Amino acid sequence: MKKIGAPKKTIKLLPSHWQLSLLELYRRGGSNKEAKALIYSWIGKFSNNLWGRWLKEEEDFSEIIKEGRILSEAWWEHKGRTNLMNKKFNATLWFINMRNRFGWTYKQKIDRTIHREKVFR
Questions:
Q1: The pTM is what?
Q2: pLDDT in tens, 68-82
Q3: Which of 61, 43, 60 is nearest to 51 (CA)?
């Protein structure tokens, strides 16, 4: 039975330099939305569903995005760390950005349960 519909889109649609370009974007603090916009500029149409499918099904793509997120968070952390003494630095705005982008939180999760071993004599 012949399949009907458009062929499944794969990362083969991306230009040969896609890994380096995405990593460079993240290295400068870029976001997933900026990465999606870049991919859109390359292939002309790009959906959130396709992004999600590629993250699940395309191992190379998934790894580049994971590496990119690490690079982006490191860039933003560096901005915060190197501006600690800068009175013009908006630390509140920076923290809100970190919370929204990377899931930072005010709360610390502390396990207050104490595990005690029973001593048998």
A1: 0.81
A2: 999 999 999 999 999
A3: 61
